[in-house]
Design goal:
The protein is mostly helical. The chain is about 70% helix and about 0% strand. It is built from 4 helices and no strands. Helix 1 (about 1-20) packs antiparallel against helix 2 (about 40-65), helix 1 packs across helix 3 and helix 3 packs antiparallel against helix 4 (about 105-120). The protein is flat and about 55 Å long.
Amino acid sequence: MKGFITIGLLILSNVFMTLAWYGHLKFKEWKWFEGAGLVAIVFISWGLALFEYFFQVPANRIGFRENGGPFSLMQLKVIQEVITLVVFVGFSLLFFKGESFKWNHAVGFCFLVLAVYFIFKK
């Protein structure tokens, strides 16, 4: 159960992280952000990133083996990276219509899945 909670929290964390890191690139399309300067955008993104930490820190604490969770530190990191890329691809395809998912991206993801396999191998 802790594994599922950890992964769910990591997904939520990565949604906020992706919005903070890349969502601001679409702000110019929204009327109420079009005049915002770089400093304002940084603070808005920082505010979004705060919510990332509300999910990321508990996910790592719950999921970490030494806190009674099912994952080692390396496993937590690899899970987080794969989730980050999956969330990012979904985000970029939904919000950035000019971006595409190509064969080399699929190959890269296959290597990441292999990384997960090897990290979890005893």
